[in-house]
Structure formats: structure tokens, C-alpha cells
Queue: 4 jobs
Job 1
Amino acid sequence: MTTRVIGTGSSIPDRNVTNDELAKVMDTSDEWICSRTGIRSRNIAVEETTTSMAAKAARKAVEKSGITPEEIDLIIVGTVSSDMYYPSTACLVQAELGAVNAVAFDLAAGCSGFLFALNTAHSYLSSGMAKCALVIGAETLSKMMDWSDRSTCVLFGDGAGAAVVKADTVGIRSVVAHSDGSGGDVLTCENRVTRNLLVQREQQFSYTQMAGQEVFKFAVKMVPKCIQEVLDKGGLTVEDVDYFLLHQANKRIIESVAKRLKVSLDKFPMNIECHGNTSAASIPILLDELVEQGRFKKGDIIVMSGFGAGLTWGATLLEW
Ligand code: UT7
């Protein structure tokens, strides 16, 4: 038995913020952001929260899959921007949906969060520990940005994407996941405060700090490698793949991966132009948009690959 995606959903905040709007409040320009990243606008949460977007995306995915919330026996939310330390976003979503039979927990793997959550759900389903899982990537990174750091804050947007997956004979063919904690200092966000009986300390770097070029170099090196690895594991080649769904961090990273793999950029759908980098939500939002556009047909071969804080990176090969 393997794991098949049977329904997808997504949710983004109402408020769209263009590059031109950012240029009114900081020293940047549409020309710089667009030429360096491919981003033209992003949506930023005002009333929305990580939980509300996760629940909305999940509800859509459940509706489209034709299952009832009671059938879900596992909920995993990939997020690094939950609204509360506890309970987890997954437990809050469980309550919203009335998925009373599910075990629910969050998983923190930076922008790889959705893929790591999907791979974990795959393990549960393959081993018979669960039969139907709800996998979500949801982030409100806008609340964790230093809005005076133009090199980082312009890149990110908020949103959530979800997929219902079920045990089936066709679906995921292979998965790979990697971490390198020794390189983690290139993308960090410290806890805000340490406060106990003995210590009262505001952290120095309580907002996202990123060495952009280091992350860029890591991504263009490791993503093609892990795509090749997941294909080797699944017994396929790059020529067999119909779509590569990559984490939407930078258009130039995606172009570089396509070039290194010697694959036409047409096979790399993108939505970074209007959403920016939504971290763990980027792959499931893209997946849902492509499903809505009717882009996939039965038998299509899809590779999803993400990378991010940790450092973490991974890939999933599946048959639609
Ligand atoms: O999900 C994973 C998370 N992150 C990523 O994937 C990020 C990966 N990295 C990147 O996407 C790119 O490294 C960035 C988009 C972050 C930066 O692009 P870059 O081509 O590496 O630019 P840079 O950092 O070398 O900066 C070039 C110049 C600098 O000015 P000087 O020193 O050459 O005068 C920056 O100060 O651009 C300046 N700059 C800006 N100018 C206008 C940096 N940010 C901005 C900005 N607007 N927003």
C-alpha cells in the first residue's frame, strides 16, 4: 500500500501587498524585487491566523476529497509560525473540523514542513498505523519578519495549503528527506523572550535572520541532488516527470534547478509572482492551484521538492 492525494485546498489572506506598496515604506523597488526573486506581490494576514488559514484550507481539501472529518485518523501541520506554543495548530484544526478520530500534531521543518509532514503521513499509512490523513502547510511568517530588513521581509507571504491523503495502491513512489543542523545558522528566528524565576531576557534576534546568498547556494546545490535521489529510488528518470513542484522561494532558484537537471522550465509551474515565499505552505498552495486548473491527469508523474530552515530538504515522487 502507498499514499494517494485525494483532495487539496488552500487559503491565503485577503490583503494583497504589492512591491510598489512596500517601496513606499522602505528603500526597495518593484524592479529590484521582481528581477532578483520573481515576486510581484504577496498576501499578508490582518485578521487571518495560521490556524484560521490552516482550517480553511483543510475544510476545502476535505470537501473536495468526499470524505467526512470523522474518517481522518491523522492530522499533521507543517509550520514554524503557529499561533500558540501549545496546543498545536493541528489540534486546533482538529477541533474546528470535528475530526474527532484523528491524532494531531505539528511538525517544524522550516519551508520543508509540508513535505516532511507528507512523508510522515506516508509512513503512517504504509505501515497501517493510519488510513486517511490530513496534511497541511500553514504559515504567518509576516509576524516574524524584521520589517526594517529589506533583504528578507520583501520575500515572504502568508497562507496555507492542505491535502487529504489515503492509503491506496497508486500514489507516492519514493521519498527522501535530509537535515544538516550544522548549517542552520543561515536562517534563524530565536524565541522572543526567556523569562523565569532567575532570568529575564529579550532575545537579540527575535525576528527572522537570513544569509540570503548562503541559502541560495545551498538550495541550488541540494535540490537537484535530492530530486535525482528520489527518482533513482523510484526507478524513474527526469524525462519521466510531468511536473516538478518546487518550494516557491525564488524564481532564480527554480530556473537554476531546471537548468542543472536539463529539464524545460515549462515543467516547473510557479506562483511565486503573486504569493511570494509562503514557507511550508508554498508547495500545497501550488498543488491546489494546479488541481483547480485541471492540470493533472491520472498517471502523471510529479516530483515535489522543498528546502529551508534547519537546514532541511527533501523530495517526494508520486503518480497522480
Ligand atoms: O525558503 C527559503 C528561504 N530563503 C531563500 O530561499 C532565499 C534565498 N536567497 C535569495 O533569494 C537571494 O539571495 C535574495 C533575494 C535574498 C537576495 O538576492 P541577491 O542577488 O543575493 O542580493 P544580495 O543579497 O547580494 O544584495 C545585492 C544588493 C545589496 O546592495 P549592495 O551591497 O550591492 O549595494 C543589497 O543591499 O541589493 C541590496 N538589496 C536590496 N535592494 C533593494 C537587498 N535587498 C534589497 C531590496 N531592495 N529589498
Job 2
Amino acid sequence: MPCSPEFQLDHAGLVAWLREEDPGALARLGAEADRVRREHVGDAVHLRGLVEVSSHCVRSCLYCGLRAPEEDLDRYRLEAEEILACACSAAALGYGTVVLQGGEDPGLTRDFIAEVIGAIKRQTRLAVTLSLGERDDEDLLAWREAGADRYLLRFETADRALYRRVHPSLPGRLSDRLGQLRRLRDMGYEIGSGVMIGLPGQTWDTLATDLRRFRELDLDMVGVGPFLPSPRTPLGGPGALAFLAPPALQVPNDEPTTLKVVALSRLLCPDANIPATTALATLDRDQGRELALQRGANVVMPNVTPPAFRARYEIYPGKACVGETAEACRDCLAGRLRTLGRSVAKGPGGRLSTLRQEMSLSAPHR
Ligand code: SAH
């Protein structure tokens, strides 16, 4: 069904929706995103077990609590057996995917990660998603050959000057996340990207460009969450003021704006997998995930990192569900999904496999 003219989303239309405050209009946007979500990816919600494999990081991103200059952190790197145990627990909990996320950590060597992927693939039927930052093509190729299915790499902001300021390149190596995303796609990965909402310096105009970029990149996964100030980081204190755009232009890092971006992402990328992110759940513990799932999201990424390590992976403070066991998270989520009238999806839940499934379902019976 074609979208009504209200939802024809050129750049000006996106800016207008992002700035919309009328409750009736926002309810229509949310309902349209929910309808498109149901039509394209159905009611089942994919659960991806998140393993925070390392809190070591060589980068100095101005927003992140794990940035290299933070010297007092008690950093860790999981052993291969520990990661494998997390993956097995994700499989036992009924999840279809394990996501290995970490700081940009050269200690996670090409061979180490390849061996971990191989072991997960031998011992489980899980899809493997990586989110390990900017890496050489040789690493990415080796991990793809070892069986990795997907890669998450947010481009963080389409504003190049802002990107360079908040995400400094390593010496002698220009940061090029868009280039890496395109190469990942060519290597056969499903690719995910996204931005933070309300990053100091992010304007409405930039955010509309971010949204258009999600579509241009034909993303398989789109992840957006509010920027949450992390103390001790340059953007976590008064220093952030120097980054802010003029008040009329600066995007707020709040829940209503994040929900608008989730809904618009669904309209622009109808068959993408879109998570209700932990950052949003951190901002609104009671309702954040539910509201996103009712406005276009179809994925949740429960944490399966051993609780002893979770508190040490502090990208931002107060992360939702940090103290919960993986089992408690699964049971809590399953209950919340039931209340929403949504089911837990079975299988790996990749965009391509879902599309294929749909095509075979809609093919005439012989
Ligand atoms: N090292 C990997 C994984 C980073 S964590 C990488 O750089 O890709 C995943 C995402 O968390 C980041 O891409 C960023 O968008 C988000 N993030 C980082 N710091 C944040 C903060 N203070 N508030 C909200 N989100 C944050």
C-alpha cells in the first residue's frame, strides 16, 4: 500500500516530522510505522544475545566512556571459552543471533576472533554479528570466511566536520566508516549502522540527512539511541556546551525525538531490522523498549555478558538491566512482548533470510 502524501519523506518532509510536536500527528506517524513494520517484517521480535567481549579501546571518541584516554578503568577482555559460553547460553535461551561487541581493541586479533566465530558456528546454529569498530579488510574478510554473518558499525553522524571532532581518526589512518560499510556489504556481510540522537552539535538538518543515508546505504539493520552523557568524557561535562548548535537547531537527546527517528527509519527502510536499543531503555526503563517496538522496532538485544563484566563495559552510565542474569532478562522480555501482543521470533532473523522466507511464503502453492 503506498504511503499517504503525509509520509512522503524528502529532506524537508523529514525535517518537518523531526520537529513535529502535535500529539495527533505523532500518533499517526507511530501508527504508520507500526503498520509498515507489521506488513514488512511481521509481529515476531528477534532477540539477539549481546556479548561485550572487550572494554579495551584505542580510540578517543569524545562521547564514549571506554575511550582510550580514560586511564582509571578496570578494563577486561573475555577469553575465547568465556565468549563461547555466552554464545551457548544465548542459544539455550532461544536467541537466534549472538552479537560480539567491543571497543576497538587490537588485542582481539584476527586469528582470535576467527577462532571464536568458528567455534560458535560449530557448536550452535546462531547467526554471528560483529561490532568491533574499524578494522582492516583482511580482518573482516577472515571473519567472514570464518562464518560471521553481519557487522554493526554506526556512522554516528552525517556531518563530516562534527564526525571528525567527536570521533578523531587514529594517527595516519583516516576514519572512513561509510567506506568500511560498503566493503563489508561487498564481502557478503549484512550491514547495520546508525547514529546517536541528540549528540551535541547535531542539528535537525543533519539528522534528516542521517535518515536519508540509512536508506541510501540500503541498511539491513538500523540502530538509533539517545546520546547519554558519560561523565569524565569531553561530551559528558560542561565542555559539551561548546559543541552545542544554537538552541533552535540542536536536536535534544530525549525519548520523543528518538521515537520519531525509529518511526521514520521504519518508513524509509521498511524491511530492515530495527532494534529497540539499550540506550533508549536506559533513558526510560519502564517503557522505552515497548514504545520503540510499537513505533517500528522489531529487535531487542538482551545482554548475555557475564554480570561480573557488564558493569565494566560502561559506554555510558546507568545502563539498563546491568545487574540482571541472562535468564531473568529473557523472562522479563518475553513477558513484556506478550503484553504487547508480540511473539519471540525463531531462527537467525537476518534481513535476507526473512525476505527469502516471505518470497517463498507468498509463492503460489503447487
Ligand atoms: N567500538 C565499536 C562499538 C561501540 S559501542 C564501534 O565503535 O563501532 C556501539 C555504539 O554505542 C556506538 O557506535 C555509539 O553510537 C554508541 N555510544 C557510544 N557512546 C555513547 C553514549 N555516551 N551515549 C549513547 N550511545 C553511545
Job 3
Amino acid sequence: MQHVTLNTGVQMPVLGFGVYQIPPEQTERAVTEALAAGYRLLDTAAAYGNEEAVGRAIKSSGIAREELFVTTKLWIQDAPAQDNTRRAFEASLSRLGLDHLDLYLIHQPFGDVYGQWRAMEELHRDGRAKAIGVANFYPDRLVDLIVNNEVTPAVNQIETHPFFQRADDQELMREHGVQIQSWGGFAEGRNDLFTQPLLSEIGAAYGKSVAQVVLRWLTQRGVVAIPKSVRAERMAENIDVFDFELTGEQMAAIATLDTGRSLFFDHRDPAMVRWLATRRVDHA
Ligand code: NAP
């Protein structure tokens, strides 16, 4: 597995396994199969409600802790967020059965973000979170967070797939030393991604599936990917992307699929901000 080096010096696998929308009762099996398939980066969140099941799979795998890269996310916290964030962090760690995280992310750019970040800076200084970062931060909010705080986020996890490629955002992050990580790398199958003609044609040239072309395209761009699947054969397929390389011409052709717009929702849409900010998550 290839790795990227985060701005804290921590090494992160370029490809991992995401568990969003995997029901808790299926998560232990799915993560067990993902670990057996070779994944070492696991991406969960307090809001997914499946941290305990991820923790059980980690424990029963017998894989040494230092071989794993575990990410979880802090849900929106009211002010003053510093105490709430510490509590939420300890609750996540306890559910995961771990004594530290490799990466702790602010899940949404809402609520008392600065209070959350100050608490996360402390957790990072204490060595409890080897790296800290954010998710769903558009450039304006990301830069504001960077220039007004001591620790620069190591990662910004954002919607990134062939129909919303985020090249400008990636460049801005690169300038600030922030690693881009894709969520929804397959756009959750929207826009008929898995039968998209150009991606299918490129895949056929290598004997690879559309999913493999997408993951190769992401990782070749330096974007960390965390595909989700509940099926063992797809987990194996999705990690088998390091034995071929897309040409410059193919990368340029895929660039033409970009619509420059989210396929899900815009985190700057006031109605969505209101909906998300009022959503409370149990134990988060
Ligand atoms: P995704 O990875 O884009 O797509 C998952 C979908 O693709 C599932 O329906 C899965 O079905 C299917 N799939 C997987 N591999 C396939 C293959 N080889 N061929 C055909 N279909 C395949 O969606 P996502 O789960 O939303 O995003 C990935 C991860 O990003 C999440 O799990 C989560 O960890 C993270 N995320 C973060 C945020 C955030 O706000 N920070 C938001 C969303 C997601 P099966 O399961 O049936 O195989």
C-alpha cells in the first residue's frame, strides 16, 4: 500500500475503507472482511453509529495497532465546545476500544468550530490524536481556520469524484499543506457512475472495472480515497488498483467529466446549514 505523509509527519494509506451507511449490525463483519482484504485505514464517525462495531472488528483482527490508521469524526458541538469536544472524543475512543486516534476530524463546518478546534489542538498536543483535520470545509472556511489557529488541519475530507473533481480546492490545500481526502469517491453510484461510458472504456483497456479506474484516478491525483462496500468481492476489487497506471491523456479525458457541482448538497446552502446544525446525534 502506498502512503502519503501528513503535515504532522504521520503516514496515511492512500486507500482506506469507509463505513458510512453500514448498519451497526453489519459493520463488524464488513470491517473484518475489509481488514482481511488488506485495508489498514478505517474511516468512521460518531454520527455513523457504528464505532463500537468497528472497534470489535479491530480487536478480533489481532492486527497490531501501529499497523492501523483509524479515523473518526466529531459531530457539531454547541458553544462552549471545548469540554463537549473532549467528552465526545473520549466517548468515541471508548466505543472504538482504542487509546488514541490516528486522525480526528471536525465532521461539519458548523457550530462552535473554533472551540472544537482548540480542544482538538490540545488532544493533538497530548498525543491522543496523531493528526487532526476537518471535513466538508470549502476554501473560505478552511483558510479562515488555518490563519486563525496554531495547528493547520492535516486533512480536509470532501466530496470528490469524477463529477465533482475539486482540482482548485486540491491546489489550495496543497499550498497550505492540507491533504485532500475524497468522500463519496463513487458518488455513491449517482449519475450512473458504474456504467459511465468513458470510465468503462478506459477500464476495458486495462481489464479493470469503473470502480477501479475511479480509485486509480483519485490516488494518482494524490487524493486519499475511502470507498465503502458491504461486499467482500468489491472490497477486494477496490483495493486492487496499484498494478496499472492511467496515462496523461486518460487523466485529461476524465477531467472533462467534472460538473464543478456537488451531487449531494452544498454546505453553503442556508437551508442545509440550518438542517445540519440542528441535527443532534446520540452520544456524539
Ligand atoms: P461511495 O464509496 O462513493 O459509494 C459506495 C456505494 O458504491 C455503495 O452503494 C456500494 O455498494 C457501491 N460500491 C462499492 N464498491 C463498488 C464496486 N466495486 N462496484 C460497484 N459498486 C460498488 O460512498 P460513501 O460511502 O458515501 O463514501 C465513502 C466513505 O466516505 C464513507 O463510507 C465514509 O467513510 C466517508 N464519507 C464521509 C462524509 C463526510 O461528510 N465526511 C460523507 C460521506 C461519506 P455495496 O456496499 O453494496 O457494495
Job 4
Amino acid sequence: MKTDAALDNACIGWRFDNSYARLPESFYVPIQPVPVQTPEVAILNHALAESMGLNLGVLSEDAAAMLFSGNALPEGAEPIAQAYAGHQFGNFTMLGDGRAILLGEHVTPNGDRFDIQFKGSGRTPFSRRGDGRAALAPMLREYIISEAMYALGIPTTRSLAVVTTGETVLRETPLHGAVLTRVAASHVRVGTFEYIARKEGAEGVKTLADYVIHRHYPELIEAENPYLELLNVVIKRQASLVSHWLLVGFIHGVMNTDNMAISGETIDYGPCAFMDAFDPQTVFSSIDYHRRYCYGNQSHIAQWNLARFAETLLPLLHAEQGKAIELAESAIQSFSRIFQDYWMAGMRKKLGFFTEETEDSRLIEDFLTLLHKHQADYTNSFRALTDQSQPDNDLFQAPEFMAWHTRWQERLSRQSESKQAASDLMRANNPAIIPRNHRVESALTAAAEQGDYAVLKQLLNALAEPYADLPQYDDYRKPPAAHERVCETFCGT
Ligand code: AMP
Ligand code: MG
């Protein structure tokens, strides 16, 4: 077994280090994945593997299935389940990896460090009443949407493989079991800080914060107050991230503090989805009864989550509690402005503006109001401004739109950049293709219910070049017809 693994390491290119497993014992539990019955490869991400210095091409299908099910671990992996807590829909809970295992960190030939994590790999001490397993469709859903986010240029964890287990998992109905291999800058979450703060107090938080600074933000090591700077940089990353989500119409769906990564990557794709017709109240998640995590609330929730992060850092921010609170509050308050700046900058690009005018926010708001009023497709309406196509909607014929269009054209003519340059800028910032929910669902149904992966692979191809105008993918640009609309998504736990 060991020689096989050593051989695999040499051929595949694994280079494991386990820095998280060197942290104090209370941060995790060492644990092996529970072997699965008959693993089979559903999908492998060769492009991602290659970018990490891994060559999966040397593996037989069987060997790949053994590897990515956890039945045969790469040499050097020291599997652990990470401990964390989280505010779920506003309520504090102790959690931890209940169905995931961190194999360790793969260090690429360039020296980049990535967590390699299995999701659906069996029970752990954190499983509570769960079975530790995952169903095929939700794992493929994470694969599709995380890869789409990557292609859109949005920070995200990625998906290296999905294998089926040959076992049945029981949800509302019996489903095929699967394991997803997730690649992340790290899995340290706001919830990790909350857990350590409860369990270990200020000393533990300091250990975790130092770890995070060394791993993600080494430029802060020499800062006068590195912990305040850590808070500031995480605020900045999250403000940027959530602005990106809004700009492409993404709704995360479960922005609990355990699903917010300190690295600033989008993490934990559950009931997430992209909005078709523009409506800030849009929610897909079947359990988000009060629209807490709706499209338009996401920046407020990010700020709320960051306040929970700041609370854990208080003892490190200043020796005097009053001063510490003052520093934290002012950092958290800065979120709104930072977020607004990122969002405005992104919106200006979407409308082809190179310069800044004070009237821009009015122009942007007025366009969004028109989209909302006419229930126009968010993605296609922006893209149609660029390529002068007519979306399937009456918006572009409406007199109020014509009036807006004139103001917009006048605005464009007040900048020295050419119309062509503006149009190129817009094309690079308004995707033509997003993972529309009805397309995602039909790909998942074909794969998980009929074993037909052609629909899914074709969708992945289309999503890989979201800003291009490739006629063969025109069909993917269509919003759902009334009967195709999928309004509800599930976390699949
Ligand atoms: P999530 O909603 O995916 O962020 O998960 C929230 C928590 O529930 C995490 O601690 C998960 O590990 C845990 N969890 C979700 N599904 C399962 C499952 N099937 N078995 C055990 N734990 C689970
Ligand atoms: Mg989670």
C-alpha cells in the first residue's frame, strides 16, 4: 500500500505538508475517511490539476476512483476534521467538519499552498446526527458553480474531482452517494475564530490569527498592530468578494459565519444560484424563509458576519477593552464605504465608464430600477447594452428606457476613450453566460438520475468562457421559459 502511494506521489506530483495539523490539538480531530464500497469517477478536473502541478493522466480510472474516494490516501496526507463554530441564520452553534476531511495542504511547484479536502467522506466526531455522506447531485452542483465562478474571475474554492461511492444516501429519497474533492486557499472561516475564542480564549485566537497572517497575509507580520490589520484586510476581501457576487447576480444562499472564508474565497456551495430576472429580494434556498440571505441583503450580512469576526479579535486589538471596541467598531463601519466603492467601480465597468462622475450612481440606480420594474433578465440586459442585441423583453422598447439610453450615451461621450474601448470594457465585465439554474438542474438530473454526463460537460465548456461570444453556446444565454424556471434550491445535507 505504502509503496503504491509513494509511487503515485512521484507520478502524480503530490507534495503534502500539514501545517494545520501542527496547530494545538483543540483545533481539529485526526481521523481517516471511511472507505466507500465501489468508487467510480464521475468527473476529474484535469485543467485544475495541471495548474497545481498534478498529473492525473498517469492514473487509471480505478486508481483515480480509489484516490478521490479516500480509499487510498496520498502519501504525506495527515487527515483531520477541523473544528469550527458558526452563526447559522443568526444563531450561534458549535459545528466542525461533520462530513468533510482535510487531507492536508498540497504545495505546488510554485510554492502555493492549497487545502485538499474531501466532502462526503464519512462521519466524524462533529457529525451530530448527520450520516457524514453527500449525494451526487449537490456535489456536482458545487463542481459546476465553483468552476463557473472561477471562470468569471471571482475568488473561489475549486473542485478537483467527484467520485460516486456505490452507496446509497438517504435524504427525502434514496440517492447516489458521492465524494467531492475541494481545493481551497484554506478552510479557516469566521466560524473557526468563533470556535477557538469560545474554547481557548485570547491565547487560542492569537495562535489562529498568527497562523492566518503567516499563511494568507504575510505582509502584515511587521505591521504595528497586525491583528487590526488582519481585521481590515479581511473586511476588504469580503467587501470585494460580495461586490463581485452582486455584479454577476450570484446569490450564495447560506452566508452563515461558518461559510465565510478568511482567505476571501467563495466557499460552500449549497443552495446557491444565479438570478435571472432582476429582483433584489430573490432567494432560492428552500430554508431561507425570511429572506435573510436574499440577493440584495448579502452585503449587510457580510458586514454582520465580520462583526462576529471582530468580536473574537477584541482581546488582541488593544490592551484596554474600551479602545479595542472602538477600533473594531470603526473597522466594521468602514465596510459599507469599502463595499460601495468596489460595487461602484464594478458597475462603472459594466456600463463602459473609465472616468467617475457624481451622477453615475443615479444612472446606475435608474437602470436597475428599470430592470426591476420590467422584470428584465439581469445578465442579458447588461450584455445587450454592449452588443446591441435585443433581449427577450419589452424593456428595450419602453420610452423610459430610451430616455435612460440617451443619458447613458451622453455620459459615454463625455469621456475621451473611444466607443470601441468602452464596448470592450463592458464585454469584459458583463458575462454572456452564467450557470442559469434551469441549465444546472437539467445537467444534474441527466448525470445523477440517468448517468449521462454529456449535458453537464457541455455546460462546463460553455461556462469556461463566460465573456466570449461563441455562437455554439448561444442557447446557454437564454433565460428560462416560464415552465423551465427553477425557483427553489436545496443544501443537500
Ligand atoms: P453546511 O450547511 O454545509 O455549511 O453544513 C453545516 C454543518 O453541518 C457542518 O458542520 C457540516 O459538516 C454539517 N453537515 C452537513 N451535512 C452533514 C451530513 N450529511 N453529515 C454530517 N454532518 C453534516
Ligand atoms: Mg458549511
